[in-house]
## 1
Amino acid sequence: MHKELLNRWKKIKKVALSHEIKDELKFKFDGEVLFDEPMREHTYIKIGGKADAYLIPKSLDGLITALKIAAENGIPTFFHGAGSNTLVKEGGIRGFVISTYNSLSRTEIKLETESFLDVEAESGLIFSRLIHLAKDQGCLSLASFIGIPGTVGGLVSMNAGTREAEIKDVVRSVTFLDKDFQIVEVSRENLEFEYRKLKCPRTHFIVKAVFRLEKNATPEKVAEEIKKYQKRRQDTQPLNFPNLGSMFKNPILQGQKNQLTAGQLIEEAGLKDVRVGGARISPKHGNFIINEGQATANDVLALIEMIKDHVKTSSGIALETEIKIIGEDL
Ligand code: EPU
């Protein structure tokens, strides 16, 4: 057992960051650098091993510097938002985790007419701030997104949404930093959105996006709508426990009307309230796994596999995860 642990330690240390790279980050990078940073501090479900370096750029230049250091040294990079949809394994992350959460988070009105506003928001802005900006302007367009946790970059990259709307319905353009560190603005017609996904190369970093907000109500009316959606969430989702939102995509079967949602399929398979270690399938909503305090990534992964197996057996449907799973096994 001791030998096994030692080998594991050696394997991790072999690829950990050198002193030179750490120094380069300390001296050149415009932003905050956290070495050996526990990812449980940066995920909503409060799970995850340590990242070699967790980087919070203060400027676009800072972001470019981090990406260049990574590219020159063959270091993997992981783009992270607020961590509301990411499960990090217990072995942590070898490489740089880069998050603009709350750092690159400005907004700017790009265009205003009598009927709409085009607002640009940087990737690190927490999306609820944009929802409240829309409310103050009397725009209903974002009200139904209330309660989807995460940043502008995170919600755009996964085309987040509800039964009412998806990001693709409100976005006008997205600005990326590409693999050659060039800024590229792509308009809506040329963006390829799928269910819970924006198709773009893995190396593209979302810098900002423009949202079209229709002026179609009063701020009071929007506030009322927001309250209604908040109540629905409170009533149907286990928001008092750390969680990852919907774990699985709702299945879309060609030609099938009234297809059951992932939550319904999990309930029908009799899996609600099942526990593995500190992780539990929520008794309130089958598509949520909650951390009761001491859950590990392996507990959550075991529940995911159990759900996939049982739902496949009971309904014939192969559920796909909606969440992002990253990091290494211990
Ligand atoms: N239901 C059950 N049992 C359950 C859970 C749900 O019977 O255990 C039933 C509900 O009663 C309802 C139906 O299933 O009739 C749909 O449930 P819900 O309204 O909760 O919607 P959902 O499809 O499960 C989607 C989004 C959520 C979003 C809600 C509300 C996906 C994968 N999930 O959930 O988004 O909050 O609609 O609009 O599309 C997220 O993406 O992380 C997320 C939370």
Note: The longest helix spans residues 297-315.
## 2
Amino acid sequence: MSGGKATASAPANIALVKYWGARDLARALPLAPSISMTLDRCRSRTTVEAVAVGDTVERVAAGDAEAGAGEEVLLRGPGGELAPAPERFAGRVRGHLDELRRWAGERAAGVRFRVATENSFPASAGLASSASGFAALAVATTAALGCDPLGDPAAGGLGSALLSSLARRSGSGSAARSVLGGYVEWPAEDAGGDDDPRAAALAPASHWALADVVALVEEGPKTVPSLDGHRLAPTSPHFERRLAELPRRLEETRAAIRARDLDRLGPVVEEEAIELHLIAMSSRPPVFYWRPGTLEVLEAVRAMRAGGVGLGAWATMDAGANVHVLCPAAEAGEVAERLGRLAAVSGVIRDRVGDGPALHDDHLF
Ligand code: DP6
């Protein structure tokens, strides 16, 4: 093929029922279904250029291109400058590009990629930057290869089910959910028997305008990747019991979303978050994502719900110290103000439920 360039953005998501524990970690195949809410403002934007090896001035050997060697992965810093991405992230991007190249077959033969990405929020702080980043990478890469990633399959597009599978092949399971907007479920099993579970929409963003106010208590990268958390989860004495509880929680979460009932959703979501961290802390060896500020925020959220204040605020955390506070859109201003006043909170992101990936004309390079 001749070279193409494409830019896509994709949203982060917050898990309401968590993916924690895999039956095949290398392929990011989960032990249990998970449900998430797609975010609006927290997004990654990624430009991918597919350079046919024969066309490029900086020729690389075809064999190298096959293995993805020499692929450039850039990250846009806070000052707007593009710089080589940290090796841990760049390595995951190259691995994902290899998977996408394998899927694309002939279309990607002898192609080498150049990638640049930026996040609208602090990366690697348990805010699902890998979910948004790899979903955006799947969309931009397939578009750069000449596919129509966001188009309807009936009209030759890839469609969200295939995109979900392609995003999952990054190794980030939560990326499988970031290819869709609104409220999303990622099943553990594939009804078609291909062992390729694909996320599907439970309801679009327009169904229920929930807000998510994120209280930042730690903006640096987390020290333990989710991958280690998944691997260690079955060593916790609480893990099996959680798996047994999950069918009830999943049903309760689906019903609460259907009924737009935050008083029903909130308790399940908090239970889920506390339990993920209980399992992490009781894994062998233990994994601690919480910081003292996490507890301060959790206490403040309970106080917001108490009589006298009476806000509908419910907390959840992914594998990090920062706390997402779900609340009705009309209460988000007051919740953000109260969270911002806490000593441990360095910043607040006012987000809400949002739409899925999009393609853009303005490239990062
Ligand atoms: C706690 O394996 O998807 O966020 O690759 O870092 O994105 P990353 O993690 P992944 O695990 C996500 C774990 C979680 C819960 C969830 O999103 O369901």
Note: DSSP finds nine helices and 14 strands in the chain.
